[in-house]
């Protein structure tokens, strides 16, 4: 009799444990447990998903990534998350030794508050290792393969400070999110691409574009057709984008403007000189004469480099429009190649 009571008690405890586990699992936000579903396009192509892009923003801005400072454990987690998503989309590795990673040295930095924003101050005497994340689709490079199109975004941010950390949701989890979603969409069109496409997530942008400059110094300019860089584009009006270019003669500008009209968004082109107070990773290529642009939000500077750059400020429909714009630009470049 005592044995039966004991078994019943064990069974009851097990049932209670399973019920509590189910309740706790149901209470966990869906974005922490699984990628959101995506809808099929009526045209047979993969449809961009603002919800899926927003999932990536929330993931990269989460506490476990601790602001993604180069060389930190959080940045390492972020690089591996990005690589896993590119692999999941069907991209092939384009980094060193058959991996998705390209390692480089980046100087350490301290943080200094200037006005409302925090700035990294580089310490040139101290260095650490960090990784660019590189993946590719389309024809393999070599021989008579046409020039490569690069779609890029930096994933690094300012890291942690005191008891808190800088989420970097707009700067630049938003750009990485659009890159990842563009990779998913374009991989489905891979057979129709007449050129290789490299998806590059840079490290070290905040300290001085170290990641993009490292890549550019090892990739011949003659092999690059165009660079579409994405930076801080997830806030503000869903249909308004800013475009930075080194000069008005940039051969990529007509492509940007034509693609924008076709997807129903507005682009405001701004010419930035080398003396500009702001810049982004397109510059590492533009200074070598490569057609390159950075796509941003017109209000990209709002909450930039503050603790308030959080996912709640991001507009999922704007991320989706950003993906549409990038994909349409690649399709326009492909049309001119054929």
UniProtKB/TrEMBL annotation:
GO terms for biological process: proteolysis. It comes from the Bacteria. InterPro entries: M28_fam, Peptidase_M28. It holds the Pfam family Peptidase_M28. Residues 132-328 form the Peptidase M28 domain. GO terms for molecular function: metalloexopeptidase activity. PANTHER family: METALLOPEPTIDASE M28 FAMILY MEMBER, PEPTIDASE M28 DOMAIN-CONTAINING PROTEIN. This is Peptidase M28.
């Amino acid at each position: 009799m005592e044995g039966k009571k004991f078994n019943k008690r064990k069974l009851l405890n097990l049932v209670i444990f399973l019920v509590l586990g189910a309740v706790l699992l149901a209470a966990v936000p869906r974005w922490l447990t699984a990628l959101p579903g995506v809808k099929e396009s009526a045209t047979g192509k993969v449809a961009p998903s603002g919800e899926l892009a927003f999932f990536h923003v929330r993931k990269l801005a989460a506490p476990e990534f601790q602001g993604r400072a180069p060389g930190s454990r959080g940045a390492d987690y972020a690089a591996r998350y990005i690589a896993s998503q590119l692999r999941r989309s069907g991209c092939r590795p384009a980094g060193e030794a058959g991996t998705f990673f390209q390692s480089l040295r980046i100087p350490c930095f301290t943080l200094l508050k200037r006005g409302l924003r925090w700035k990294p101050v580089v310490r040139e005497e101290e260095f650490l290792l960090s990784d660019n994340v590189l993946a590719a689709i389309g024809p393999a490079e070599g021989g008579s393969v046409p020039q490569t199109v690069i779609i890029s975004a930096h994933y690094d941010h300012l890291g942690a400070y005191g008891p808190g950390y800088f989420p970097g949701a707009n700067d630049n989890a938003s750009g990485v999110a659009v890159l990842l979603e563009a990779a998913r969409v374009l991989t489905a069109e891979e057979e129709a691409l007449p050129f290789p496409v490299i998806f590059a997530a840079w490290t070290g942008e905040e300290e001085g574009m170290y990641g993009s400059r490292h890549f550019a110094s090892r990739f011949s300019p003659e092999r690059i057709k165009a660079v579409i860089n994405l930076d801080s584009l997830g806030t503000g009006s869903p249909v308004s984008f800013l475009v930075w270019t080194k000069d008005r003669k940039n051969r990529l500008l007509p492509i940007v403007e034509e693609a924008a009209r076709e997807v129903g968004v507005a682009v405001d082109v701004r010419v930035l000189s080398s003396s500009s107070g702001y810049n982004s990773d397109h510059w590492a290529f533009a200074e070598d004469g490569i057609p390159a642009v950075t796509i941003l939000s017109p209000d990209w500077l709002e909450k930039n480099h503050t603790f308030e750059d959080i996912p709640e400020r991001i507009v999922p429909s704007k991320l989706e429009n950003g993906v549409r714009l990038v994909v349409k630009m690649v399709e326009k470049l492909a049309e001119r190649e054929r």
